[in-house]
């Protein structure tokens, strides 16, 4: 059976074309289990717990979060970029947030495409997402971290989550869903850790060119469904075909299907393990179809996801995470720091933006751009560590100098902004 599963996974890799969805979660999970039998056992036990809770919630002997309680998940988006194009805009991030909330609340406009045979099974999960409003230190935040990396791309092996490997560290994964957005190797669109995995790498990873919706992301993965799918894994869902031929996803109301579907199939797609003439639920977010084809979670999937938040279960800590509520934050928001603005005495990457030097400084800093960008008509602001803006001005020359002589010693964040685009760097005043 194991050999069969391995063959199946290999088939997925080799059959995939550029326009076919590739999710790295199953391979990642199998590697993790092989390296950490303890996690495998913990997950198997959790499976029992989820299964029993799920049955309970669907009418056998209930235990869930409060009925219809909306569960809020604060997101922190780590933009780990090498090229300027990978440093996606705040608007692109907002489009992803909107897509997630539409999909998880069954407010997606394309739900009208769900075949009548399956429409009654579609669910509002009562799970919602926000960009974190409070950082782990209790301060206001945008929920977005931008970090330059020297890495051209990452494979689905967690390098983007570790500074020493060119990535950015997770925020407390008991309170935040960490999402890393970066350039992925080969055709992998994304992958997720599973509940109960290692805390420092807990979260999902999405390729920068399929994160969000609209014209800035590539078709046919341009409706934000890669994140919808991967967060489904983060919430304990399996692929709808159970990652085996005619396998099971441990959800009762998703029909058994022989294999994954891709592209945009026509209803009904019946195989020899379909339970009836309705065939596969290929429009489910946990299949491999195109973004424009998938449009639903089921009631059973909803219960399986929500079961994770029950008392004693693996995501229960999120019921005590209040990072979606900005009124509870202390102090002002600090701009996210791009380490693209590197120290002057280190080698600079090509065509990658901002250079601020010297750093540390006693008097002031020079601001220059690498490559085709320049300072002209950009705004420069300097923030102290509690988020107060202590200087702001307009840049008019290609090379600029900002005097910091009247600022006291300490750490500052310098931000260069034009419209919604901005770069930031941390500066030490001596
Ligand atoms: Zn997947």
Structure report:
The protein has 2 domains: 327 residues, Collagenase (Catalytic Domain), CATH 3.40.390.10; 77 residues, Immunoglobulin-like, CATH 2.60.40. The relative contact order is 0.14. The longest helix has 21 residues. The chain has 430 residues and is α/β, with parallel strands linked by helices. The protein contains 7 helices and 15 strands. The strands form 4 sheets. Strands 1, 2, 3, 4, 5 and 6 form a 6-stranded mixed beta sheet that branches. A 4-stranded antiparallel beta sheet has the order 12-11-14-15, with no helix packed on it. Strands 9-10-13 form a 3-stranded antiparallel beta sheet, with no helix packed on it. Zinc ion binds next to helix 6.
- CATH topology of the largest domain, by name, is Collagenase (Catalytic Domain)
Give the number of DSSP strands: 15
Q: End-to-end distance, in Å?
A: 64 Å
CATH class of the largest domain: Alpha Beta
Global morphology:
elongated
Structural class: alpha/beta
Helix percentage range: 10-25%
Order of helices and strands: HHHEHHEEEEEHEEHEEEEEEE
């Amino acid at each position: 059976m194991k050999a069969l599963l391995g063959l199946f996974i290999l088939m997925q890799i080799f059959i995939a074309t550029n326009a076919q969805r590739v999710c790295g979660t199953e391979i990642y999970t199998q590697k993790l289990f092989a390296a950490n039998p303890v996690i495998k056992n913990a997950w198997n036990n959790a499976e029992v717990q989820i299964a029993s809770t799920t049955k309970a919630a669907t009418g056998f002997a209930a235990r869930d979060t409060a009925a219809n309680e909306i569960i809020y998940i604060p997101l922190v988006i780590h933009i780990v970029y090498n090229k300027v194009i990978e440093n996606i805009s705040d608007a692109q991030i907002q489009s992803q947030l909107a897509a997630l909330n539409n999909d998880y609340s069954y407010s997606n406009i394309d739900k009208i495409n769900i075949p009548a045979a399956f429409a009654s099974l579609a669910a509002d999960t009562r799970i919602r997402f926000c960009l974190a409003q409070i950082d782990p230190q209790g301060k206001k935040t945008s929920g977005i971290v931008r970090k330059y990396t020297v890495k051209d791309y990452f494979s689905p092996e967690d390098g983007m989550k570790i500074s020493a490997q060119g990535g950015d560290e997770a925020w407390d994964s008991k309170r935040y869903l960490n999402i890393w957005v970066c350039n992925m190797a080969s055709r992998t669109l994304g992958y997720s850790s599973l509940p109960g995995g290692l805390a420092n790498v807990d979260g999902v990873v999405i390729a920068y060119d399929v994160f969000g919706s609209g014209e800035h992301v590539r078709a046919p993965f341009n409706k934000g469904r890669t994140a919808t799918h991967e967060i489904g894994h983060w919430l304990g869902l399996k692929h709808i075909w159970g990652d085996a031929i005619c396998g099971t996803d441990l959800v009762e109301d998703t029909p058994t299907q022989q294999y994954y579907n891709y592209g945009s199939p026509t209803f009904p797609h019946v195989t020899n393990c379909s339970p009836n003439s309705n065939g596969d639920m290929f429009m489910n977010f946990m299949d491999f179809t195109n973004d424009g084809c998938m449009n639903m979670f089921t009631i059973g999937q909803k219960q399986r996801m929500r079961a994770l938040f029950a008392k004693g279960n693996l995501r229960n800590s999120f019921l005590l995470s209040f990072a979606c509520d900005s009124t509870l934050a202390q102090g002002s928001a600090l701009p996210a720091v791009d380490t693209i603005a590197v120290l002057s005495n280190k080698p600079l990457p090509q065509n990658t933006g901002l250079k601020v030097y010297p750093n540390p400084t006693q008097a002031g800093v020079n601001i220059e751009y690498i490559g085709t960008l320049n300072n002209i008509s950009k705004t420069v602001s300097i923030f102290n560590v509690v988020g107060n803006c202590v200087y702001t001005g307009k840049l008019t020359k290609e090379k600029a100098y900002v005097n910091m002589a009247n600022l006291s010693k300490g750490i500052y964040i310098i931000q260069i902004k034009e419209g919604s685009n901005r770069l930031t760097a941390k500066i030490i005043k001596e």
